[in-house]
Design a protein that fits this description.
This protein is an alpha/beta fold. It is about 35% helix and about 20% strand. The longest helix is centred in the N-terminal third of the chain and has 20 residues, at about 45-60.
Amino acid sequence: NTEEEVYLDYAGSALPTLTQLQSIYQNGNISNQVLANPHSFGPAATRTRLRVERMKKKLLDYFHGNPDYGDKNDGSDKISPSSASLSWKDYRHPGYDIIFTSGATESLRIVSERFPWTISSTLLYSHNSHTSVIGMRNETMKQGGSFRCVNLEKLHNAKKEDFTTWGKKDSSSEGTNMDSVEENKTAGADQINDHGQRQHHHLLVLPAECNFGGDRANVRQIIATARAASSSSMRQEVNAQKWHIMLDLAKAAATGPINLQQLDPDFACISFYKMFGEPTGLGAMFVKK
């Protein structure tokens, strides 16, 4: 084909190179080995399982998602992961588990379907979120929760009091479906935490980099503010608010390095297609331990 063609994609990687495709399909030795379900037994299953575990390790190393055991209080030896007395509070950061998905959209769907929504929950997302985030609203509203769409600049300038306000359902909530709650007897009820407070779980979803315009948010600051609102609520309020954060890293991971320990989201999703251009239909979700 002698026709010249220009391909532009500002939402992810360029077209895969020939050497990349050869590495995937010819030099990967997949054609010379029998692979099987990694959850079964036998040599073929073992080969698959080892490949999966190796890839998980590479991803955790690359995205800085391994546990950080920190130092002991006395400043002496590092805490060992095999220490008998080790608990999650001893970690500087607990690290992440990896779930392979078909892409960022499925990761968002999985979280929305399994999040502990209640009638007091709020889904908060930025105005430049991917359209897949809009689909998460249905799961929130099924349980009587509400959603709010907030300008990214407002999130940047937010104080912890703003998150407290956004977490309260009132006339300013942009979406709710109380009628469905009356009909749905399985609608989520508020939980009681260890302090005897009603626990309201909220979810903040935002992209680390806009899929359309390429704007990068100061997500580390936004996440820290949401965490501060949760901590303050735990100490002072009768109804405790707990903000969980999900980062859409599909675009950001394709254009720059990501440090999950520093960003500290509860969930994060990536798309290998946007990172490499091949293969399609493959991504991963990071879940904080």
